[in-house]
Amino acid sequence: MDLMIDTTGVDFQVSSPFAPRLDKDGNVRRDKQGGTNLPLQAVQLVAWTKAGSETLLVTVATDNPPELTQRQSVTIEGLQAMPWVSDGKPKVAFRARSVVPVSAPKSAPAAKQQQA
Questions:
Q1: Is the pLDDT of residue 105 over 60?
Q2: What angle do CA 88, 26, 29 make, to 5 degrees?
């Protein structure tokens, strides 16, 4: 079962930029679950809330992930949790439709210096 996550009130920052998800043979994994067959890319994010923070590895199916830098603010569209079990231990994988940089606010034009 995939569970959609409400990200209202959560600020996300990049911890590590996108990197390809590889299978055990070192090949880039492809999106079979979503049916797109696009390469799977993962980005490590820090989710900040009023209660604290948590680090998430979020997978996105894309052949052109945005270039992100550490501590850059991003928004997430369609974040979902996918619970699973490995060796009897419960785990959670995170997937999103997209992770995109937050637009930086435009700065005010520099004041012209007056000449004496």
A1: no
A2: 70
In sequence order, which residues have a C-beta less than 8 Å from that of residue 29 and are 6 or more positions away? 20, 21, 22, 23, 39, 40
Distance CA 50, CA 17 (A): 24
Q: Is the Cα torsion angle 44, 47, 48, 54 positive or negative in sign?
A: negative
Q: Taking 80 as the threshold, does the pLDDT of residue 114 lie above it?
A: no
What is the structure's pLDDT at 106?
52
How many angstroms from the chain centroid is the CA of residue 27?
21
Cα dist from 61 to 8, 52, 76, 98, 114, whole Å: 23, 28, 13, 8, 53
Please say whether the beta carbons of 60 and 98 come within 8 A: yes
pLDDT tens digits, one per residue of 75-104:
999 999 999 899 999 999 999 999 999 975
CA distance 5 to 37: 24
- Tell me what pLDDT residue 39 has: 97
**30: Cβ contacts below 8 Å, ≥ 6 apart:** 37, 38, 39, 40
Secondary structure class of 38 (helix, strand, coil): coil
